[in-house]
Amino acid sequence: MSEFPRILAHRGASSLAPENTMAAFVKAMEVGAHWIEFDVDIMGDGTLLVMHDHTLDRTTSGRGGYYDKGFSDLRKLDAGAWFSDVYRFEPVPEAADVLEFLNATGMHGNLEIKPCLGGEELRERVIETLVHSVDVLTDQDNFLVSSFDHDLLARFGAERPDIDLAWLVDPDDPEHGEWRPGATALGCRAINPGDEGLTEATVAQMLEAGFEVNVWTVDSVARARELAGWGVTGIFTNRPQDFPESALIR
Ligand code: G3P
Ligand code: MG
Description:
Blueprint: E1 6-10, H1 22-30, E2 35-42, E3 48-50, H2 71-76, H3 95-105, E4 108-113, H4 120-133, E5 143-147, H5 150-159, E6 164-169, H6 179-185, E7 190-193, H7 200-208, E8 212-215, H8 221-230, E9 234-237, H9 245-248
Parallel strand pairs: 1-2, 1-9, 2-4, 4-5, 5-6, 6-7, 7-8, 8-9
Antiparallel strand pairs: 2-3
Helix pairs in contact: 4-5
Bound molecules: SN-glycerol-3-phosphate and magnesium ion (MG).
């Protein structure tokens, strides 16, 4: 057994550069990571943006939600100044930018579809658009699509059975223990559980059921080592720079 699980840079190397920006993804590559995780949602005009929150306030110069905004608004946003002056004018990427980055660099990716709260029309559109966007990927074997929104995950999986899915488990969801039937029905490759409250017994059940297990978000090297001992496949971390090269190359 390896000392560490696979290391996935969470929102890029998000302790070194502003999360979910190209700067953070490039930084992940620079520190030797081979996997990045990134969050995707949709704007009112169908633009797929890379962003964690449902509002622009925390990580950009913009205000409010984005379901009533579009590409021209996106171009005006500064997604770096909140993090550091060094990253002023860093743009919010589109999903296509990150997919091209994966192709250009040979990096591997976990695309997380954020629960889309923009209404049924946008929920349909985010899947329709993503299904085509991922066509550009040259290495579909080292690519995962995950979501807490299991309905969206199912819709994506139905359209693209050739792409591996990961069932995200939120420890705050009262039904978080019910991963087995849904993940099995969707033929998921992996379960991605939160670290909070996660037990060795639960990990063992997931592994025994045939799933890979990728735990988020683990910023402690000691905890990563412990999880490796439990047999987990990967961890999402904001601090890939803390891990040895041997762990990062997998
Ligand atoms: O995909 C793992 C992790 O990113 C899920 O939680 O809220 O950071 O997107 P969140
Ligand atoms: Mg995420």
